[in-house]
Amino acid sequence: MIKVISDKAIRAIKGNNRLIARLMIAFDRSQNTIENWMAAKDVRLTTPIAVQIIAEESNLAENDILELI
What pLDDT is stored for residue 1 in this prediction? Predict the structure, then answer.
């Protein structure tokens, strides 16, 4: 089983500029890069720091952020 970022989490990120900004700072990457990661469901969005930021900014629980495939 592999953990991937959920569609629900992707929607939450897309609608939250503060969340995107925090991801940009945490990974030292541009907004375009974060958007590319979302489109590709990049594994970096499943790292502990990304999951923590997404949870704090979106009020989603970890099991709503990650899904097993």
Answer: 84
CA–CA distance, 69 with 26 (Å, rounded to integer): 26
Cα separation values, 22 from 2, 3, 13, 27, 58, Å: 25, 22, 10, 9, 12
**pTM of model > 0.85:** yes
**For residues 17 and 29, what is the distance between their CA atoms, to the nearest angstrom?**
14
Measure the N-to-C terminal CA separation of the chain; round to a whole number of Å.
Answer: 6
- Bridge partners of 68? 3
Q: How far apart are CA 5 and CA 67, in angstroms?
A: 6
> Could you identify the residue written with the tokens 């939450």?
12
- pLDDT, one tens digit per residue, over 3-52 is 999 999 999 999 899 999 999 999 999 999 999 999 999 999 999 999 99
